[in-house]
TrEMBL record, chain B:
Residues 259-270 have a biased composition (Low complexity). CDD domains: MPN_eIF3h. It holds the Pfam family JAB. This is Eukaryotic translation initiation factor 3 subunit H. GO terms for cellular component: eukaryotic 43S preinitiation complex; eukaryotic 48S preinitiation complex; eukaryotic translation initiation factor 3 complex. Component of the eukaryotic translation initiation factor 3 (eIF-3) complex, which is required for several steps in the initiation of protein synthesis. The eIF-3 complex associates with the 40S ribosome and facilitates the recruitment of eIF-1, eIF-1A, eIF-2:GTP:methionyl-tRNAi and eIF-5 to form the 43S pre-initiation complex (43S PIC). The eIF-3 complex stimulates mRNA recruitment to the 43S PIC and scanning of the mRNA for AUG recognition. Component of the eukaryotic translation initiation factor 3 (eIF-3) complex, which is involved in protein synthesis of a specialized repertoire of mRNAs and, together with other initiation factors, stimulates binding of mRNA and methionyl-tRNAi to the 40S ribosome. The eIF-3 complex specifically targets and initiates translation of a subset of mRNAs involved in cell proliferation. It is found in: Cytoplasm. Keywords: Cytoplasm, Initiation factor, Protein biosynthesis. GO terms for molecular function: metallopeptidase activity; translation initiation factor activity. SMART domains: JAB_MPN. It comes from the Eukaryota. Belongs to the eIF-3 subunit H family. Component of the eukaryotic translation initiation factor 3 (eIF-3) complex, which is composed of 13 subunits: EIF3A, EIF3B, EIF3C, EIF3D, EIF3E, EIF3F, EIF3G, EIF3H, EIF3I, EIF3J, EIF3K, EIF3L and EIF3M.
Amino acid sequence: MSRFFATGSDSESEESSSADEIAPKAPGTTFKQSLLLSDDEEDTKRVVRSAKDKRFEELTNLIKTIRNAMKIRDMAKCLEEFEQLCRAFLKSKNIVDKEGVPPFYIRLLADLEDYLNQLWEDKEGKKKMNKNNAKALSTLRQKIRKYNRDYETEIAAYKENPQESADEEEEKEPGDSGSSSDSEGEEGEDGVSAKAFLKKKPDASADASKFLKTAKGSGDESSSSDDEDDDGDWGSDSVGSGSESSDDGDGQGASMAMVFLKKNQEPEKSDKKVLKKKKTKKKERLEEEAEEEGGEEVEGGWEKVKGGAPMVKEKPKMFAKGTEINVPVVVKKLNEILQARGKKGTDRAAQIELLHALANIANENNLGQGIMVKIKFNIIASLYDYNPNLAAFMKPDMWKKCLDCIDELLNILFENNNIFIGENIAEDSESLSNTDQPYRVRGCILTLVERMDEEFTKIMQNTDPHSQEYVDNLKDEGRVCGIIDRLLDYMETKGSTEEICRIYLRRIMHTYYKFDYKAHRRSLGLQGESKSEQDQEESEGEDSAVIMDRFCKFIYAKDRTDRIRTCAILCHIYHHALHSRWYQARDLMLMSHLQDNIQHADPPVQILYNRTMVQLGICAFRQGMIKDAHNALLDIQSSGRAKELLGQGLLMRNMQERNAEQEKIEKRRQVPFHMHINLELLECVYLVSAMLLEIPYMAAHEFDARRRMISKQFHHQLRVGERQPLLGPPESMREHVVAASKAMKMGDWRTCHSFIINEKMNSKVWDLFPETQRVREMLVRKIQEESLRTYLFTYSSVYDSISMQTLSEMFELEIPMVHSIISKMIINEELMASLDQPTQTVVMHRTEPTSLQNMALQLAEKLGSLVENNERVFDLKQGVYGGYFNRDQKGGYQQNKGGYQRGKSDQKGGYQQNKGGYQGGYQGGYQGGYQRGGYRNQNQNNY
Amino acid sequence: MATRKESGSAPTTVMASTGGTLDSPVKQIQIEGLVVLKIIKHYQEEGQGSEVVQGVLLGLVVEDRLEITNCFPFPQHTEDDADFDEVQYQMEMMRSLRHVNIDHLHVGWYQSTYYGSFVSRALLDSQFSYQHAIEESVVLIYDPIKTAQGSLSLKAYRLTPKLMEICKEKDFTPEGLKKASIGFENMFEEVPIIIKNSHLINALMWELEDKSTVADKHELLNLSSSNHLEKSLQLLMDRVDDMCQDIVKYNTYSRNLSKQQQQKHQYLQRRQQENTQRQSRGEPPLPEEDITKMFKPPQPPPRMDTLLIAGQINNYCQNVKEFTSQNLGKLFMAEALQGNN
């Protein structure tokens, strides 16, 4: 378009429009090639049919379907048809032998191969293809390669000289246009109608630009919009002509159309009432169904599109010189402009321009704020409308415009206290002119701002997070927040509670993930700062915590929709957790019972929930509650899909499983980059907490047969580490943790410490915490404690006694601390020892069985269960009365088990008791067995 | 159970005597010292850890005595030569041996074992196919670990005729096994072995004994036991676990069976009642339906594996028993020695 701009003046519009005519054709040409080829075949078909055989007809039909399949990229269909074609060709072998291979057949082969190769090269497109298609593509490609080998010479000949057919096409084009395929027909007509419109368009653009120049001075904008204007115009006409062929006549006679349209003015206006209703609906739905409605309107498109097209031309006339410009006139015009909204042919950019122009006119003529507000509403709505589909995001200039508009609108609203706005005000009851009574304007500022917020999220989602652009876009966040804040003030005075809840939630959503450094610093109470500075800080605003608290509590009390409350709670928890208020966060989480029913919530809320849980876990970790941290993170981490669950990106492996539509939806759910939780941090926190829990546990239960894992993922990492044939120094975060775990297993806390906290890990993970130093200290402490525990578990069998002094030196812990840890272990019966106070030593009781004894115990346990199972078999066989063993026997075994446990827990005599248990059990069993000796023998024999 | 006595070092004769007569064509096995040495050497060179080595035994039958005069190993399998033809190799080997005038009759195979774990499905299958094809064939089980402790452990096994019968019919259902009245005790029969050394072998043995170090010679007196016992227990435990699973399976099966039986019974009763009612009303009785179709009996679990596991467990237990009794003896001996000093 800049090309036209460069050439510049209005007088050249003739040229520009002719260039225009070519422009849309250009992208179609490649496409046309194949389309026209199909025509060509038809032609040959005709010739052949008259002369030869119906075989060829069959072939051509098949070829046509293949072409169609190619057009819609349906590879599966293509493959199917191609196989049929091959079969059909074989059938007509003798004819072919007589006549030679038909040229159209060769052409198809050549084209198909080219097409497939092209598809094959297009890696992107291939990825997007669904499984079936991709599979079909590869098979078809192989097939055609093999097949084409037989026709190499013919194909080569065809490729050398495709012009022949192309020439033929040219000639045929006009005649054929209506015949084979719809799209083609459209294009053909395009050519025709476009020429017809040439006459019409220049007037329009010329008029428009003239008008714009008089109205406002912004020349460049107007001309550019002009061009677009042309485009839109053009598009609408082509659609119109495409939909109904009888329409063609109208379209061609441009001047006739003008006359006709003018006459039509009256009925159209009567139509407006109907349209209005549609409009209101649309507004409420935020134009989300803009596309849909566009679709709906296609049937009746004829009239309405007409309504859209002439609008552009009439606009200069509507404010002809001398017309008295007053409110009703402007409103009428406004409605006229809005008529075109949401229709296929409407040029949205031009519409926005028109609205702006209208706003200026209204302003110039001092028509009052009411009308201004109304126009502004519509401008913003049209800005949102600019993108026809939901996935696309706003362009930066549009975005800027949108922000400005909303700002202005808010300004007006603040300045004029007497404006009532609301979506429930009917259009009839609007009062825009009377100055003595308050203005009543239809529209909902809250919806607009919400939409703006969503647009902002969309922009952030669609910007590369590592570019400068992202930073620039992010700077707008301040403005967005400012707008939300202002609206919040406004709403607090005027809005209903629901509206206040909604705007509060918006505010919360913009606050909860931000770390409040100011408050943090204040809470630390840095004395270094001068008094005045502190005062200044305080005056800057309240803590985000206070704000969050106030808003959330309001929502808890007033909100009636469950969703807003849920979101508010989650944000509140997140905010608490982010600022290390662990107990508040935890209590809120537990009290809200969100964990029970979050699975019924919609995906965005679930994502928020996941984020909150993760933040909670990280908070617990910072506070040193390792177990809580582990539990909170377990769900997210164990799935291995943390990225997806947090809405921070899509997993590649799912690419095959979901189709493009789902992918689009999922992409829309993604959290913008600046709100991300660092995944490596998350994983590291999880692994380290798992390590601190799992390693002592493993050491304590080394011989336990029924040892369960605390963390599967951690074990997985350990196993991966063990599988390495050559173990170098750790590189990644995971390797560091694995190496640290290994060191900890040996009770070597120093090595463990050096693996967990070092330069690399600092930069990767720990420095991301706000209170880095404190976290690191906590971590060292935990490592020391857990290493001590592990050490005692692992090596207690080696010691008779060990001095606490030594232990405290070994692990650099204070003696009371060591004392407390060991006492805890003794109380929990994890360590068989006693503390000797005078000498400050731990005296081990040699009750920990040796590994052989341990095994024997395990074996006995297993045999016990084996016997029990066996018994059940016999119970079945013999009925209830005659078991293999008597009932006492079972009791005996259970006693036995009790004996084991006591054996473990008691210090001495446990073994003897154990034995007692055994004997008792056996005796009982033996006697029982003896009494039924006869039975038993029989049974055994049977068995 | 085989009792072994070692008479000096010269003609090493391992005698194994089993109570009762064997009703098989082979009552005794005579092994050339060469074969024993070759088997030991084979393991030493190729087997390590729990890997087993296998080979072919050659010899002939003289009356009721099987004389094993030579053997050769199977090459170790690697993934690289998947298309390696074993049969081809064996035939080739036997032909070559025939050329140098060595007995070339296939009379069985040998296999090393790891802590006595050899009672497995694989062994059963291959021994079955051997015995099916060559009636007198045996499997020699060589336990390198026991041998390393000082006493040569070599045992010859054959499948009992009962087991052969079952394997032939492939009927491993509980009913089938019950009918054949086969238990883990009478799956395999051990054949007594005599080792016969030629003078050349004797000379070699003398030479080897001269060369071996003192430590090697007195391995027999090693007092440590826990390592061996731990391994055995570990293996034993694994088997017990398997056994447990099998029993649970069997349990479910029998429960299902009895439940179905009950249902069948109920159904029949109801049928009968109805029929009597109908009779009293003078209507014709309901037609007979195929009951087996309505109540399909559940698939019985194969019990062969359980039997094998039981056999294996028995084997382990014997091993542990033997080992501990020996070790206890040694400990007493050591105590006595200490007391004297």
